[in-house]
C-alpha cells in the first residue's frame, strides 16, 4: 500500500543535510513497515535491530556508544556488513534503550555517512518522563499518522477518483453526481475502517467489517497495555479513565473537553498528566481555543479551553462499539455523535497535512470548528456531518475577522459561493 511517508524518506536519503531520523507515531500506524519497505527499495541492504524482541542489544549500547565501536558489533549481530551510504540501519522500539537514542548524536557528529532511522511508539512519553539525554539538534524528526483518506482511496484502487477530487478541489467545480455519491460512500467506509494499515489491508482483502473490528479491538487492547507498561503507577487508572471519557465527550453538543465529566468533581490538576500522556503517545491530540484570531495563533490560545480528538476514526468507532451499517447508512440514532465524528475526521486529515489546528468561540457562543494558517492566511473551517450547512457562527466569524475566504466541509458537492469554498468531507485531505 502506498504511504506518503515514502516521498519524505526518499528526500531525507538524498538530502545534503541529512541527520539520523527519528520516526515517531502511535502504535500500529505502520512505522516499521514503512521503514523496511523504504530500505528494501532504496538501499542495498537493511540492518534491523529491535530492542523489544532482542533485549540483549541494551548491553551493547551500555558499554560504548561511539560509531567506531558500535558498527562492527552491529554488523555481527545483523549477520551482514553495514556499508556507509548503502546500508539502512534501523533501531526499532528505541524507547526501550536510552543509550541507543543518545548514540544518534555521535552518529550525526562523527559518522554522518551512515544512514540511520529509529522508530518508537512511545518516544514522546519516554523522552518526556525519564532523564533521556535527547540528541537535540542532531536528529531529524517526523511523525507518522494513520493512513489519511487519500491513502485509503488509493489502497482501494481509486486512483482516478483521487485525481478527479484533487482537480475539482482546485477549480471549485462539482463532481459528477454518481462519483460524488461513490466518494461519500468511501468516506463512510473510512469512518468504519479507519487508517490503521493492518485494518485497511484486511478490509481490501475480505470486505469483512467484523474481522476489521477484531483487529481494532486488539490495537485498543495494546494501547491499554501501554498505559500500564509505560506509565507511573499512580497515573494508570487516571489515564484509562480519561481515554474512556474522550469518546463520550465527542457525543456532546459542545465538544469542549470538561474534566468534571471524567468523574464527579474532576479537576485539571488531577487529570492533566493523564491527558499529556495520551497526547505524547500519539493516541489523541488537543485542539486549543484561540481568544483572538491573529498571527501567530499559538500566542492567543486559551490553555484552559480545548477539545480532544482521537488519532484514528476506526478505533473511535470500535471504542464506541458502533455497528458498521449504522455508520454506512448514518442512522438517526447516531445524530448526537455525527458532528463530533465529522470534526474528529477533519482534525485527523488536517494534522496529517501538518496543520496546527485551533478552534474559535465568540463571547456570545458562536463557534468555528477549526482555524488554520493556510498559505500564509488565517482560514476558518466549518464542519457539518450532512448537507444541511446553514452556519450562523461562520457569518459571525466572517463579519468579525473578514478572512479572504472560508472553507465549509459537509456532504455537499464542490462549489465556491459568497467567499466560501464548499468542500465535500471526502476531500478534506486536499486542504
UniProtKB/TrEMBL annotation:
Domain DUF4143: 225-385
Transmembrane segments: none
Domain AAA, residue spans: 18-153
SUPFAM superfamilies: P-loop containing nucleoside triphosphate hydrolases (SSF52540)
Protein's name according to its UniProt entry: ATPase
Annotated organism of origin: Roseburia faecis
